[in-house]
Amino acid sequence: MIELIALVMVANWVGLGWALLILAGTSVLGVALLRIEGLRAWSELRAAAADGRYPEGEAETANARSARMADTGARILSGILLTFPGFVTDLIGLVLLVPPVRRGVGRRLAASAFRTFPGRRGPGGLGRPGGQGGPGATGPGGIHHGVVIEGEVVENDSPRDQR
C-alpha cells in the first residue's frame, strides 16, 4: 500500500511515464549490482579453491573477513531491494549503498548470522583450532561436531573380489 501511494505521488510530481522509467532504471541497477557482487564472490571462491586456501586468504584476520562478508551481504541486500519495483524499496536500497550505512547494516546482518549459526564463529573459525567448530566441539544438546577421523581407502583389484 505504501509503495502504491509513493508511486502515485511521484507520478503526480514527474509524470507517469517518467515514474515508470525511474522504476525500470532502478530495477536494472539492482540486477547489475547483484550480478557484480555475485560474480565477485564467485571469482573469489574459484580462486580460493584453485589455490587450496580460505576464500579471503589466511593472513586476513577474522574481523576483516567478517567486515568484508558483511559489506558484501549489505550490497546484495541493496541489489535485491533495488530490483523490486517500488520507490520505497528503491530508496532503502539506495541508502544501503552509502558506505557508513552499509557498514552499520552489514554489522547487524553479520551479528544476526552469527546468532543463527553459532558454530560458524570464534577465534579460529569453523574447523580451525580455537574455533567453536574445531575437533571435539559440542553443539546444542552435547552433539559433537567437527570430529575428523583420518584414514585411507584401499581397493583390491583381484578378480576373486569382483563377484
Structure write-up:
With 163 residues, this protein is mainly α. It has 5 helices and 2 strands; from the N terminus they run H-H-H-H-H-E-E. The chain has one domain (2-116). Strand 1 and strand 2 (144-145) form a beta hairpin. A two-stranded antiparallel sheet has the order 1-2. The chain has helices at residues 2-14, 16-51, 62-83, 87-95, 99-116, and strands at residues 137-138, 144-145. The longest helix is centred in the N-terminal third of the chain and has 36 residues, at 16-51. Mean pLDDT is 75; it is low at 120-137.
Major β-sheet, in short? 2 strands, antiparallel
Question: What percent strand?
Answer: under 5%
Assembly of the depicted chains: single chain
**Radius of gyration, in angstroms, nearest whole number:** 24 Å
Distance between the termini: 69 Å
Return the domain count: 1
SSE topology sketch:
Layout: H1 2-14, H2 16-51, H3 62-83, H4 87-95, H5 99-116, E1 137-138, E2 144-145
Antiparallel strand pairs: 1-2
Helix pairs in contact: 1-2, 2-3, 3-4, 3-5
Region (Disordered): 120-163
Protein name: FxsA family protein
Organism: Jiangella ureilytica
